[in-house]
Structures
1.
Amino acid sequence: MHSGSFGIYDWGAVAVYVAVILAVGFWATLQDRTSDDYFLANRSLRWPALGLSLFATNMSGSTLVGLVGGAYQMGVAVYNYEWTAVVALIVLIALFLPAYRRLGITTAPEFLERRFDARTRRGFSALALVGNVLIDMAGTLYAGAVVLRVIVPGWSLEVCVGLLALLAGGYAIAGGLRAAVHTDVMQGGLLLLGAAAVSGAAYGAVGGWGEVQAGTAPSMRRLLQPAESTVAPWPGLFTGMLLLGVYYWCINQVMVQRTLAARSLEEARRGALFAGVLKLPVLFLMVMPGLFAAVLYPELGTPDLVFPRLTVDLLPDGLRGLVLVGFIAAVMSSVDSVLNAASALLTMDFYAALRPEASEERLVAVGRMVAAAVLVLGALIAPQIEQFASLWTYLQSALAYLTPPIVAVFLGGLFVRRVHPHAAFYTLVGGSGLALLLLALQPPLHFLYVAALLFGASLLLMGGLTWAVPGPARPAPEAALWRRADGRLGRPVLTGVAALLAAVAILITAFW
């Protein structure tokens, strides 16, 4: 097995890439003159850029490190989160996007104001901001710092987090969504190439699939796990895991913001479909390396170290630097996306509502200040993730407690005309309170089952409040409700959806 440290060619590749990406990002700042430019790139995205941006943002540094480490610890069952994401993207295409685009909203919480009232919008926006800081920003900076510490062992976790925050946050704060998408297109391709290099090298080092079968337990090579499994119990795939996917892809501002910036509904749908296609090879590029590492490093103590260990040990000089560039690309892609989403939430959902007379220049300036604050908070929280068993455990368990009440309110608003503002707001408050209580009690249940229970309780609360508490006289706006015609997809998108589902079925069957 080859082992080496980073040399001059490796660091040269990193320096060139960073210079290029910063130049592209700051060039994009020259295009941002209004809040629509800064937060939605003037609604001008085409589907290829949109799909790559969705994928690059999703496959962030935290997801890459978490997936590889999760597979090392739990086997290919972690890929269940990826194929259920494909299903969630189809839900976005057929159910959520038509209403979002029809309303012409800027943020996902704005849907709740148009459907219900301003307090529900701000309540969800506040929850989303907490998730942006605790989950998205902190998780991504922690993942990047873990990799940097392997490359530069003398640096502390805090120093690595701070350096990444400064590097990734500079152009993102200045450039808005346009800068994020332009750089995402470059970063998405580089991320795929880097992951392919690590996966190929790890497979070669193991010596073939036969060695993997001999060196791992059969359960490590199966997607579907028993109901009592502590990894990914199969009933949880159709309850909690799908809920997490619907929140992440259909409601989370970080992802939704890109679809809102598309030129049209058709472009948004095709972009989401393209992102789903890019999720398929993740099994081989980002999950399998964790399984290979279980054979190569059976005694590695920390799962989050698997990806950097494979990169440093197995790749030759020069290529190591390119893969590091790919990883930095993933970190930067996620950071710029989270910063722009968080600044859009606080600026448009709070500041603009309180200061309706604010100029476009003022809104952009406030957005940049909010982004800087979120970056600092995420950098302060990131080192604390080291206390959890693994990054993957931290990310998924946090989402499982935070998201079910939110998903319930969005689905109720989209499909049930009778749900009124009081029911929506108090379901959001009550469901979140119950989630905090369960988080404090830590029930002896897998977090996917906890998510399903929270979702069911939120639906019951919303239904009871709708029936028992009189609502305002204002009827539900028709534009915010799902229509049967919304589910009629054009032939290209419908064909793509069918092909994507068939490919998912083949992968599930192969690793049943």
2.
Amino acid sequence: MSLEENRNVTRRLCERVWNQGDMTAIDELLAENFVDHVDFDRPWDREQYKQAWTQVRVIFPDLHGTIENLIAERDMVAGWITFRGTHKGELWGIPPTGRQVVYRQFVHQRIVDGKIVDNWGLADFASVRRQLEAKSAG
């Protein structure tokens, strides 16, 4: 596949799964042997990834990711995504606050035959926690 086709796989994941909450797209975009390496001690398979993103959509139902940049080389795509969403479900023991949160996430994916085989990422969850725990002004 071309570098642009590989970037488009990541773009489709962002639009369909992360932004629209279309979990059926996961089977289309992630390989059967997909591994998410975000939690280095306990990598996730495709089904666990689907469960995690289903829960994310409960916590932040209007979550929207904006791709800031994508770089592709060989079978790898990497980039920064800025996520915005409203906290509507419990997270880390914090009840829904109704607050808008913004955080960035770095993604690095290996794509083979039009499907994501490996995913690595680093998200600024410390920033999310600070935003949710912030005291209301006034």
